[in-house]
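Appendix B, Record 12. Input sequence as logged:
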Amino acid sequence: MAVIRMIEAVRRGADDDVRAVRWGFVDTLANAWLPNSPSEAEVVEVVDAVMAGDTVWTRLATGAPGPKVRTVLVKVGHVVETIDVEPQPLYSIADIASF
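Logged structural output:
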């Protein structure tokens, strides 16, 4: 069983930065969520996972696999650490479903 972390949807704040995610673990061989996945989490949990060295993938709103997640700093009155997708010409964080 090959297991990865995946974000299937994001909730954005007023400044369009990601505030929360719906994510979990996926068995890539069975192409299925593991039990208790996906679940809602604050974006800080994703930031912590990425900073700890975990690779987090995304699923596009179309259902297709998306790019990996990276952490970014944004300034909204004060500096906030949030997430974005790895830079690439075809996709952006806006291509992930919202909830």
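The longest strand covers residues 65-75.
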